[in-house]
Amino acid sequence: MRHHGKEWGLDPKRIGILGFLAGGHLSAAALTCYEKPHYKPVDAIDKASCRPDFGVLIYLAYLVNKETKSKLSPELQITKNTPPVFLVHAVDDRVPAEGSVRFWQELHRKGVGTESHIFPKGGYGYGLRPSEFPVTNWPSLCTDWLKSTGILKR
């Protein structure tokens, strides 16, 4: 996307990643594992940065060590250069919110811009589905965050 940004009418400095559940884990990996190339460049696209400019991670899964639940999975290497992240989770989700909380704590500890919303109710897989619970408002909260960080224009 970054390589073709101008051609496609995209700002190459405003390309983010969004992930839900296991896709949230993959998005978290993309946000934290971009510095070391995993293969030699084969064309011009491979020379463009693969670092997302921001991340939106919703009910993250598989983030904490299964045994201790106190440490993030070792593949997630958060640094001060990790892009800013918006997190959402519901406490009553089948996927425990501890992973999202630990991820936020480490982002905060490293000085990475982050906003986190942990809602008491929302259930499993609420996504964009309307409900009577405040978790339904996460898209507008995310829009506000994107505007406040300058990622979206006001």
What would you say this structure looks like, in words?
The protein is of the alpha/beta class. The protein has one domain (16-148): Alpha/Beta hydrolase fold, catalytic domain (Rossmann fold, 3-Layer(aba) Sandwich). Helix content is 22%, strand content 16%. It is built from three helices and four strands; from the N terminus they run E-H-E-E-H-E-H. It has helices at 22-32, 98-109, 138-148; strands at residues 16-21, 54-60, 85-90, 114-119. Strands 1-2-3-4 form a four-stranded parallel beta sheet, with helices on both faces. The longest helix is centred in the last third of the chain and has 12 residues, at 98-109. The protein is globular, with a radius of gyration of 16 Å. The two termini are 23 Å apart.
- Would you give the CATH topology? Rossmann fold
Number of domains in the coordinates? Answer: 1
Assign the CATH superfamily: Alpha/Beta hydrolase fold, catalytic domain
* Poorly predicted runs: none
> How much is the radius of gyration in Å?
16 Å
Number of helices: 3
| N-to-C span | 23 Å
Judging from the principal axes of the Cα atoms, what is the shape? globular
